[in-house]
Amino acid sequence: MSGLALKGSYWVTVRQHRRALWTVPAVVAAALAGVVALRAWAGSVDPGEFGVAWPNDGYSLLRLCMQYAGKGLLFLPLLVGAFVAGPMTARELESGTWRLALTQSTTPKAWLGSKVAVAATVSLLGAVALTGVYRLGWARVTGTYRFHWADRGTYEASGPVLVASCLLGVALGVLVGQVVRRTLAAMALTGTLTGLVMLGLGALRWSILPVQTGTVPFPGHASQVIPSSALMMDTGLLTSTGERLPEYACFERTHDMGVCPADMDVTGWYAEFHPVSHYWPTQLIESSLILVLAGVALFAAFRLVGARRA
Known about the structure:
The structure is a single chain. This protein is an alpha+beta fold. It has 2 domains: 230 residues; 65 residues, no CATH class. Helix 8 packs antiparallel against helix 9.
């Protein structure tokens, strides 16, 4: 992190932003120490019958911290993108100090390449470390309320999607920083774009892989064919012809979930769900899509800086 082994524009980049870069290992170390301490305090009492247990203050505090950590890590790619776009890129273009780098036998692409390399390396290592720390804490509360593998926050913070999103933030940062050339505006726009991409992919992620479907004869219930660890997507009633009816179609007429009028010809229940085995394929596919977008943004950024003149 000190940049002593680096040369040229890489050394300058690390030197310029050394305080911010040192923040990353400090945050990781503090997070790791906190999780280890809370896990030790929580002891070895297993969660209760309904998936929510508060055996002691340590377990309660661990759950609370992990809940906020999962939500907080959703903003990490936005912060990475905003920092790269503003202080690392747009500020130098806005102030004109990037011209000084070009007088030191540095080309525009080499100048930008140093920004990308340093930001991507630190973001990659930091995101991987924070994901590992999160998984360490998540292992103690996994499967309980608000910590299902598919829950928003838990899903992103526990896998490579978070790492890929941080790299997307880097790519969008160097592109937007060049286009906008105003520090605060570039930070705001990059954070917004990164967040929109994450929201869009989050809305589509459970459409990547086909759902599995289970059926059970009426008057059973769809919960009988859904694994406890699965993510349920849809459930309802089936007729003898295979037609699907809403879950409460019978209840609206009989006020009893276990009784259906004969004319409705209901023969069973169906349930569509994603099993836990879909976690890693979905993570890898979504991460690949994010990296493709990052690659496109990075290509555009280098094309743009290649055409720029001091």
